[in-house]
Every structure is written in structure tokens, then in C-alpha cells.
């Protein structure tokens, strides 16, 4: 290693990274090239012989290794197969194509490796425009306009880079001939003097030879000279509206303003070559933002604007003797004025102190992370007050790492013109391209941006709404972006840092937990946020599931990089450099205020993405299923779309009204769908079909026994269902896990529905839904019908029984479609009003909770076609049941305790409704296959420390999982476990005569030592006051609970309805307060600690108790 001393702090840094440096000798034993501007070995000249295939392979191999290592996926299968692919491609073609993610990684790493750049702390925040597919200068020009617009961002400058095609050979080269995208011209006067920026004299003269006519001023924007595919370059005038300039003025003195000086806001270097793993990109304009001293030098250097003397004179300084330090004074005042002017105009700029301080932080961080940080001291120390900045005192090694930024000769030095006549002709107008280019239409900008900005819409859902909303979001985003919808469990989290725009739509389940298909994503995201890596894959699904409510309590970090932040230099180094520094994001949560942790998972995702320093383009949106969920979502979707357009500078290009209208449109064109009789008249196996449809491994079970656990006096039913697994190797579970069941809709309801369909086929005909598509071919476009992929070919009866949800009240969207096919004006209007999803809809839904048949009865003139329902109805979802048996006691079987749901709508006055799944389970015969799967509930398992005391609180059907617990303990005792363990059961029901579930079994379990204590709370016992489980905890067993939880480090389990769980939770806090003398804050901390120690376990069924009242109170 090399030891690097900081002479200011005496701190020593060790650099080991240099051993990975490319063998490019900057210096040799005879001489040091430290101050050479363009060391020959940093120059990639296209006239030199091409690098050998072996050296390209070496670079490629190293780069691919770096890329996979960065994702902690080195030595994975993906790594080795990518490497093999790359090497094979180099063998056969001499090069290879970088994937989009490799390109982004390569671009950022090249910046990170650039020894001369002082602003590298920002290396991770670089937006990449991938324009490797452009074929003409026109397309290059369009892309550059997009780049400038995005980078400028009204002064809040953003770093970005545009990749044009890589080098194949010089004959097909793409290049930007300008050294920066924005440059001022320079005119030689007859007396030999120069007007403008002398740095650009050669290019100005070349442009003029090609027909450009400058105005002869000091700050004329040079046109772009672009070369595509090895052809002669062409001129494009820079649209003035894309170039932001700052007029320079001094904060206190007026001499500067009178000098009429200005400078452009975006420094976009365009003549550097990027070598990424042996692939060379000679045309890659990129920009950061200015450090003030750079502009200062441009204006005062004698080889540039050379303004130092006029300025000193204007300031009245003594320029006669150097010791008056007039030069220093003038430079200093100019630098001050530059910073002042940019800051006053809200244009990003940094001063050299902040820049170097941030570099030192970056340096120290890089030494820690990578074992070193290459740096060119000569360039890093600023041109003014060098020793007053910290880099001055730091020893730094200079070396070249690949990916790297390299110099290349100016193209006019080697390019062989095809149109030699035109080049020689002087001042001959050649405005063809130039004139055209001025027309930067907004349509063009929109197209150019949309081609490039990919948007990923990630969703997680339990019952399908988040998915449906994601599709709506995709619809609106496709007006300006390239949006795709991906389920969280199908998403490779390694892509996260490469996203440009990430939208998350997710619901919350359990009690503040992610939906099942969001669990892995959630764990990985947490892990990345915590450890900065996703290295450790989750052990198994759900095992690491953390309680997400605790994440939401963390203060969200809103670190949007605003111009205000940026131009205040003291905040500069706090600008994000996290993993997602480049990712713009927004989150929408679906939830219900009936739950204490409303939209908790969405909040957790929002917070974590923010902590990883993603840029939040819109505050989180929330949709409460109790009230106006869809309306909230549509409002949010409009706002987030607008915010995204603003962020990507598409405001002027997008017609927001059109886009917003797409949110309102119903998107079902009847003529594009039809139902046809299927060729094969065989019904599919519904278990297999459901498996495919829901991407879940389902196994069929059969009913062995069903028993009503309530007495005949009760009038309600809670049933014990004993199912037999068809295959003993599947559906393995532990006590505490859930069984997922796909139910069947009530046959009578299905029949009633089919009778209302206009074109219904008979009961035994297998049909399929077809959608009309259009194919574009070279002989013309033709339309064809294709099978819709959502549903299989089956009878209508099977579709409505097994696959589609016909009982959940229709969405506003569906009602709108009904209004369109209703032939009665009054009904149609009523449906349309409901279809707006506003308060009328909410009231109607709340009061009637209508199923589909009831809706069609209420609006009988709706002429509904089978295709409409097959296409639009949501899928029938699985229901979960806490497993009520132990596999040790009942191998091959799974038991559930099911409360059979029946209720009258309209608060008791409406028609009788039957819960789909509970009624199905109450009616199945032993012939029928029940499609099942197991959902693990690792946070609800018995303690791993087997003698840990437990309290189990489960009123009503909440007792379900505890039956599996006591059965498990019985089996353990039978195998020799001690009986001296505390397992206290607290059950609640109405009264001992009606619904004291499992009374006998509990007594037996007590005798066998599996349950140590059993308590009951009767809420409707005649002549006695109402008692709930929480009352028993508070009034009867408060000290016992405290002792068990606090003194004996016990576990607390609660299962059932969410309101009950919340009240029990509150009661436990009171118990801790009273018995432990804790303050409310201490109790809060105590319970949080219990949760993270996995001693507080909740199994939430949802809103099951007094559903109507709860909904009403929340409305
Ligand atoms: C993790 C988990 C574990 C569960 N474990 C069990 C268990 O062990 N045992 C058990 O019985 N259930 C359990 N449930 C609940 C179960 O999943 C189902 O929700 C329940 O069986 C009802 O389903 P269903 O298809 O019969 O009713 P659905 O057809 O889904 O009807 C229920 C819906 O009807 C409406 N509704 C119900 N009552 C009223 C009312 N009075 N007024 C107006 N509307 C009303 C509500 O919108 C409610 O959501 C659990 C749920 C979860 C999430
Ligand atoms: N998704 C669903 O909609 C769904 C799912 C499952 C069950 N259900 C329905 O929900 C009901 C629940 O059935 P169940 O057997 O689980 O329970 P239950 O028998 O209705 O209730 C069990 C006990 O809990 C009490 N209780 C009510 N509110 C409570 C609270 N806030 N805190 C503590 N205890 C409370 C009840 O008292 P009181 O009733 O006397 O107040 C009763 O003593 C049934 O009507 C069933 O049809 C609905
Ligand atoms: C068992 C259960 C638990 C739930 N838990 C929560 C919760 O903790 N917080 C919340 O805001 N919503 C909760 N909800 C409500 C859902 O998030 C809400 O119904 C949402 O609209 C479902 O969207 P999805 O179809 O995309 O899953 C829960 C719903 C159920 C059925």
C-alpha cells in the first residue's frame, strides 16, 4: 500500500486501490509528467492502432467483474454467463454491447475514477441518457436538446450524460466537435485582435467556413457541429431557450455590471472519450455544475477573455506594481461576483471551499470503501486560495482506473472531409441543416424524452386493487414516459439504483405489514437501507419480516435537491450521494383507516426510498378503502404525473389535459372483445388454472369432517373444518401459519348473474374471451383475434364460480361502463354519477354493499355482455385462515376454525348476504377439491425458546391458531417435554351456553399440561356486565400479565379482529404503566422493543367484528 499523509491534520491514509490501476504510465523514472495538460498516455487517438483483442477482453472481464461485485452478485450464475457472453462477442466481433445497467454503472464509475474532478462526491447522482441507437446528426441534436433541458432544469442543475454510439472504427465515428455543448465564439479582427472566447477560435472559424455566420459579439453561442456515422459533420444552431445564462454583477459595487459580462449555467464537456470495459465512447457529452473559480479563470486568463486589467482599472486599483496585489484583488472580487450572481439567479454553483471540503469527505469515504481515491493534485487544488483549502495539504496518488475518461484529439486534426469543396469555400452559406435545426418543437422534445425515460411501476397487492391502480398509472404515464408495471415479487432489486423514475403502488396488510408479494422486496429494501447491501438473500419467505409500522415512525428524510439547497453553499456537502441518488420516486398507499397502521407499508417504502436518497417527486398519496380510495388515487396520479413531467422538463411538451382525460376514460372498447365457442370443449382443472393465474403453488384438499362449534341455541355458526391434504409432501406448515383457500361463489348467485347476461352461452359450452389486435406488416396492417390471457377457456359458470369476483361492490370504473350499456336514460345517468367515484358512490356502496346481481337488479336496463364481465371483473381472491391443528397431532390434515359470515346489508334492514369463502366451506362436500396454499406467518410462531411463557389472547374465532399451539404442546409433552411451562389462554365470547368454542378441548389440554391457565370473558352473559378480553386483562390478571411479560420475558399473542387487537394493545400498555411504573414514553419504547425482540405477536383477521358499525364510524 501507499501511505498518504495529510499535512494539515497529520492523518494517514492508505491507498491500496492503485494496484488495480491501468498500466498507463503518467511518469517514468526520468521525469514527472504531473503538470502536463494532456499526457500522451491519457490520449486515445483514433489514428493509433486498435487495442488488441486480448487487452479488450482483459478490460471487459475486469469491468463485468466490477459490475457484478457492485451488486454483490459476483460469482453468481448471471455473472459467469454474462462474462461468457461478453468474451464470446469480443472473439467474434471485436467488441460487445453494454446492457443499459452496465452503461449506467460504467458512466458513474468513470466519473468516480476521474482524478481531475473535484466534484466527485456526486458521482452516484448522474442521469444517463442512452442514445446509442441514434443514426443521424439530427437525432444527436435532438438528444442534446433533451440533455440541456434536463440538465439546466431552470437553474437547479442536474448532472447527466448522453451516450451516443460507441466507436467501431474511425470511418463510422460519432462525435461532437465542440469541446463543450455551450461555448462562446471567437472572431479574429483585421488587426489580429480577438473578440469572444479565444479557446474556441479554431472551432468558430471552422463553423464559419461551413456557413455559420456569427454576430461578431463577445458572447455569441457557437452552433453545434455534430458528426454521425463517420459522415461530414453538420451544424445545428443551439436553441437560445435551452441555454441559461447568468449576467454577472457584484453584490456591492456596480463596475462589473457595466462591463456586460455573462456566463452560461451548464458546463457540458463534449470532447472527452469514455472507455468502459474496453468499449470506447467518443461522443458522450456530460455535465455537472460550475465551481465559481472555473468561470473566474475563463474570464481572466490571458489566453481567454483576459479581463483582469480592465477589471482592476474599473475597480480603481493600483495596477502599476504587482505588490499592490491588484490581480489577486480583482480575481477575488470577480469570484465573489460570480457566486453572488449565480446564487441570486437560483442557478447551481459551488465555491471552491465547499467543493474541496466535499472532496475531502469523498476522499476519506473512498479510502474506506475502495481502499483509495485517485486524484490529480494539480487539478484538484483550486486556482485561488489554494492553501486555504484542505486538498492543498493532502498527499494524493494519481492513477488511471477503468472505466475512465480520456482525452482525444480535436476531430478537425485528423478528419478526412468527404465534401472537400465545401470546407475550402469561405463564408459560403450552407444553412440547410442550420435553418431546420432552429425548430425545436415541443412534440420533438416530448418524443425524444419519452424514448429515453423509463418508468417502473412497482406494485404489491393482496386483493388486486394495487395492480389495477398500477395499470391506470401506466396509462397516464405513457403519455410522456415509457412505463411498465412490475409486481414486487417479480422485480430484481438490483435494478433499483438504475431506475430513472420509480412509482410504487402498494397496499398494507396484517397490521401494518406488506402484502405477501411485497414481502421479499420489503426485506431487501430494509436490508439495503440498513447495511447498504442486499447481499444476504432472505432465508425463506417471510422469515425476516419486520414490523413495518416501526419503519414508518422514523422521520422521513426529505432531501430533494432544490436550487435553494444547492446555492446555499453550506448545505452543499449534504447533497445526496446515496444508492438511489439518481432515482426519482413516488409512492401511493392503499389501506383502510379501520387499521391502526394506516398505509404503513407504503409509508415504510416511501421512507426507505427517501433514506436511500432517492428524489421524491411527489409526497406519498394515501387511499382509504373506507372512503374515496379510487378518487384519491386518481387525484394523486394526476399530480404525480405533472410532478414527473416537471422533474424531467416535459411541462411544455405534454398536454396535461389529454393525459388527465385518460384517467377518466373507461378504456373498454366493446368492439375489440368477443366471446367465442372454444375448439376444445373440455373444462380446465380449476386448481391448476388458479395456480397459474395467481402464480401460486396450490394443492387440492378434501373435506374430512365439518363440525359446528356453536350450540344450537346460538343462531350463528363457527365451524371446525378438517381438510385432508391430497399429497402429504405439500402444504407443510408450522403452528401459527395460515391456510389460503380459493373459494367458489354461491351457485345460486352465479346462476342469477348468467341469466342477466345478454349473450350468455349455455351451462356446458366452453368459451373463450378474445381480444382484437392489430399487426403491422410490410404489406399493410391487419386485425386479428387472439385469446385474452387472463382467463382460460371455460364455461361461463366456471368463470363466475371459480375465477371472478362477483360479490365485491363494483368499482366506479365498472359502473361507468354499465352506464354506457344501459338503455334507460335515468338509470344510465344514475350509474354515471356513481361511476364518478365520489360521495354518491361511497354512500351507495356503504349502505348496500351490493353484489353484481343486486347492481343489475337495481339498474335492470343494463345490457351487459359476457365479454365485458369476463374482461372487467376483478379476480376472485383467496381467503386466509389461521391453521387450527398441529401437523404432529394430525399429520396429513389441516384444520381451520371458520366463522360463517352472514349479515343483512343497510345496517340490518337490507337483503341477507353470505360470505363467499366461509359459506363455501360450510357447504362443500367431500367430493370437491379445495384449492389451498400455506402462507407462513413467521412472526406468529411459538417461541424458539420452548420454555418461554406465553399469553394467548383470542376472542371468538381468534382462538383458531391457539388450537394448533396447544395441540403442538400436547404432542411435545407426549414426547417428554416438561409440563411446567406457562401457556395462558384468554378467550372471549358472548356467553358460555352458545359460543364457548373448544371448551372441552381446552379443559383436556389443561389436564394434559399444555395450557397452564384459561380465562374467559363473556360479553353477553345474562345479568352480568359486558366483559371483553381486555377487561379481564385489566381487572383480573393485570399483575399476572405484567409478571409474565416483564419479569419472565414472556411472549404476548393476540389474534382476531383489528379493533379488538388495538384495544388489547392499549390495555397491555396500561398494565405496564400501572404495574411497572413506566411513563407513556417508556411504555411505547417497551412495546417497540417487544416487537423487535419478537415477543409481541399479532395475527389480524381484518375488520370482522361489527363491520357495519366500524365502517359507519369511520366514514
Ligand atoms: C391472516 C388472516 C387470518 C384469518 N383467519 C381466520 C380464521 O381463522 N377464521 C375465520 O373465520 N376467519 C379468518 N380470517 C378471515 C377470513 O379470511 C375471511 O375474511 C372470512 O372468512 C370472510 O370471508 P368470506 O369470503 O366468507 O366473506 P366475504 O365474502 O369476503 O365477505 C366479507 C365482507 O363482507 C362485508 N361484511 C361482513 N359483515 C358485514 C356486515 N355486518 N355489514 C356489512 N358488511 C359486512 C365486509 O365487507 C367483509 O369484508 C382471517 C383473515 C386473515 C387476513
Ligand atoms: N371479514 C369479515 O367480515 C369476517 C370474518 C370473520 C368473521 N366475521 C364475522 O365477524 C363476527 C365475528 O365472529 P367471531 O366468532 O370471531 O367473534 P364474535 O363471536 O362476534 O365475538 C367474540 C367476542 O368478542 C367480543 N368483542 C366484540 N368487540 C370486541 C372488541 N372491540 N374487543 C374485544 N372483544 C370484542 C364479542 O362481544 P359482543 O359481540 O358481545 O360485543 C364477543 O364476546 C361474526 O359475526 C362473523 O360472521 C366477519
Ligand atoms: C386482513 C387485512 C389487514 C389489513 N391491514 C391493513 C393495515 O394494517 N393498514 C391499512 O392501512 N390497511 C389494511 N388493510 C386494508 C387494505 O390495505 C385495503 O383493503 C387495500 O385497499 C387492499 O389493496 P390491495 O387489493 O391492493 O391489496 C387490511 C386489509 C385486510 C383484509
Care to describe what's here?
Keywords: Calmodulin-binding, FAD, Flavoprotein, FMN, Heme, Iron, Metal-binding, NADP, Oxidoreductase. One of its GO terms (molecular function) is calmodulin binding. Its EC number is 1.14.13.39. Residues 455-641 form the Flavodoxin-like domain. The longest helix has 19 residues, at 326-344. Residues 426-439 and 534-576 have low confidence and may be disordered. The chain is elongated. Helix 4 packs across helix 13, helix 24 (812-820) runs antiparallel to helix 25 and helix 34 packs across helix 35 (1080-1092). The protein has four domains: 2-407, Nitric Oxide Synthase, Chain A, domain 1 (Alpha-Beta Complex); 453-530 and 579-664, Rossmann fold (3-Layer(aba) Sandwich); 671-768 and 795-879, NADPH-cytochrome p450 Reductase, Chain A, domain 3 (Up-down Bundle), CATH 1.20.990.10; 950-1114, Nucleotide-binding domain of ferredoxin-NADP reductase (FNR) module (Rossmann fold, 3-Layer(aba) Sandwich). The chain has 1115 residues and is of the alpha/beta class. Strands 17, 18, 19, 20, 21 and 22 form a six-stranded parallel beta sheet that branches. The chain has a six-stranded antiparallel beta sheet with strand order 29-26-33-24-25-30. The chain is built from 36 helices and 38 strands. Residues 461-466, 507-512, 515, 590-592, 595, 597-600, 625, 1100-1102 line the site of flavin mononucleotide. NADP nicotinamide-adenine-dinucleotide phosphate (NAP) binds at residues 718, 899, 901, 955-957, 988-990, 995, 1019-1020, 1028-1030, 1056, 1059-1060, 1063, 1101-1102, 1104-1105, 1107.
